[in-house]
């Protein structure tokens, strides 16, 4: 799809066609949404779809997950006129942090961290990432927020897959994602 083309009818998720499949092999995610971010209307419609379920909800801050969640998270924060907090992979913050180990979508053991001075008890945080595949990364972010006394106001991602971890997140938190129900099985099977 051309980066300037806007379809006459824009149904939820129309912009998913802008994403590119993995051509580099198993060490990479199966789909790259970064092209979607280059399309002005696609990005705006993606933001609208992600935020629709949270209209009227009290949200104090938006947190994006390292690294691609920074793009969506910052866009969401700007749209909501809220502050933005980066939840980082360990070793990137030069301030006091709280760490949480996790297993990412590829099965690798990692550690995520967040600065300890940004979340106060009761602060309502919308967590944003590009993709929730197995749920390990998002669960680590949830644990960090809650260990600091924050409240997870919701979880937003382009796709929350129907994995064990994705289902757990959907059962326990208000969620938003951009994949229409009719397309969800294709995204779960990585087609």
Outline of the structure:
A hairpin with a 5-residue loop joins strand 5 (97-103) and strand 6 (109-115). With 191 residues, this protein is α/β, with parallel strands linked by helices. It has six helices and nine strands, in the order ββααβαββββαβαβα.
What does this structure look like?
One of its GO terms (biological process) is purine ribonucleoside salvage. Pathway: Purine metabolism; AMP biosynthesis via salvage pathway; AMP from adenine: step 1/1. One of its GO terms (molecular function) is adenine phosphoribosyltransferase activity. The protein has 191 residues and is an alpha/beta fold. The protein has a single domain (14-186), classed as Rossmann fold (3-Layer(aba) Sandwich). It has 6 helices and 9 strands, in the order ββααβαββββαβαβα. The protein has helices spanning 34-38, 40-51, 69-80, 136-147, 164-172, 184-188; strands spanning 20-21, 31-32, 61-65, 83-89, 97-103, 109-115, 124-132, 151-160, 175-177. A 7-stranded mixed beta sheet has the order 5-6-4-3-7-8-9, with helices on both faces. Strands 1-2 form a two-stranded antiparallel ribbon. The longest helix has 12 residues, at 40-51. 34% of the residues are buried.
Any idea what the shape is?
globular
Order of helices and strands: EEHHEHEEEEHEHEH
Got a strand count?
9
Structural class designation: alpha/beta
Provide the CATH architecture: 3-Layer(aba) Sandwich
| Share in helix | 25-40%
Q: Strand share of the residues?
A: 25-35%
Compute the separation of the termini in Å: 18 Å
Organism: Oceanodroma tethys
Subunit structure: Homodimer.
Catalytic activity: AMP + diphosphate = 5-phospho-alpha-D-ribose 1-diphosphate + adenine
Subcellular location: Cytoplasm
């Amino acid at each position: 799809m051309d980066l300037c083309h806007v379809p006459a009818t824009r149904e939820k998720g129309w912009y998913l066609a802008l994403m590119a499949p993995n051509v580099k092999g198993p060490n990479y995610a199966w789909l790259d949404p970064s092209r979607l971010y280059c399309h002005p209307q696609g990005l705006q419609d993606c933001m609208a779809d992600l935020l629709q379920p949270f209209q009227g909800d009290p949200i104090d801050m938006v947190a994006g997950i390292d690294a691609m969640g920074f793009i969506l998270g910052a866009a969401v924060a700007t749209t909501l006129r809220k502050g933005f907090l980066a939840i980082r992979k360990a070793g990137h913050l030069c301030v006091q942090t709280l760490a949480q180990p996790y297993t990412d979508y590829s099965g690798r053991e990692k550690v995520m961290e967040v600065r300890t001075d940004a979340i106060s008890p009761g602060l309502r945080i919308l967590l944003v990432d590009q993709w929730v595949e197995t749920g390990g990364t998002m669960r680590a972010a949830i644990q960090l927020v809650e260990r600091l006394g924050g409240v997870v106001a919701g979880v937003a991602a382009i796709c929350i897959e129907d994995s064990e971890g994705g289902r757990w997140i959907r059962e326990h938190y208000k969620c938003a994602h951009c994949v229409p129900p009719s397309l969800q099985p294709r995204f779960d099977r990585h087609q």
